[in-house]
Amino acid sequence: MFFPPKFLLSLVVSVACLLPSLGATGDSLYFLLPSDTVVVQADPVSGHLLFNHYLAPKQTLYGAARFYGFSLDELYRLNPALRKGYTPGTKVTVAIPRSVIRPSFSRDSVAWFVPIRYRMAPGETLYGLTRRTLGLPNDSLLRALNPGLSADKLTPGQVIKIGYLRIDGIRPESQVKVEDPYLLRNRPLHVQWDTVMADKRLRLTNGKAAWTNSGDRSKWMVLHRTAPIGSLVEIEEPRSRKTIYAQVVGRIPEQVYDSRVILVVSPLLVKAFGVRDKEFYVRTRHL
């Protein structure tokens, strides 16, 4: 029996709209459906538009990486915790490149597109969203997509439609460059290190680092035996092949740690290196 193309498109949309979300994105066959809710937010560090995809049953991490135009290693950079494993319903953060978001589509292509919406951050303005976040010349597109949109009545958490995305995947050449989010976050200290330590004589030390759950979880901090309080330390962790910079905030308690421990690092450094053991090997440079 022959079905006209428009009938088939309507059938796909109707079936998609009847599927329950079940806390997942897409289904066992498709990573995105026209009925999915795709809400992006701007990452304050990288500036990328990030979307949380929730794995549906039978979806794999490798499949999600391929669909969104990433290598598996790039997806791990965005989601370090996923190296430990995943299950149906697991959140996978991906980037949606601005270049693949379309302002509109033809009516007979409705089954191939999903709306993209943006969640406003505290203090964000329509001007900032238009110019800085989306790189648009003016707000005419956003006003056309959101009838009645008022720049004076925007609130944190408000969701605004910004365009449409094809549901057949993102090509790797269209995807943004993914950098380790912790290294991006650590960049100001890296720049400070390069500036301050350029003409200094530095000591090289190899040994074990230990970590503790106490301390400010949002700061790059270490305890050190000899480096001046307030100075910076360069820390290389060979397993992850990451180099991170931290500030010395105190001395290592002799009664708690033995002489093999040359650093005690804050919780943020533990997350950045992705270590599990209470002690791990590091190479350092310091004053």
UniProtKB/TrEMBL annotation:
| Every LysM domain range | 116-162
* PROSITE patterns membership: LYSM, PROKAR_LIPOPROTEIN
Signal peptide residues on this chain, from the entry's feature table: 1-26
The record, for Pfam families, names:
LysM
Q: Which UniProt keywords apply?
A: Signal
Sequence intervals crossing the membrane: none
Task: Kindly list any coiled-coil regions of this protein.
Answer: none
Q: Entry's InterPro entries? A: LysM, LysM_dom_sf
What this protein is called in its record is LysM domain-containing protein
Q: What species was this sequence derived from? A: Neolewinella litorea
Lineage of the species this protein comes from: Bacteria, Pseudomonadati, Bacteroidota, Saprospiria, Saprospirales
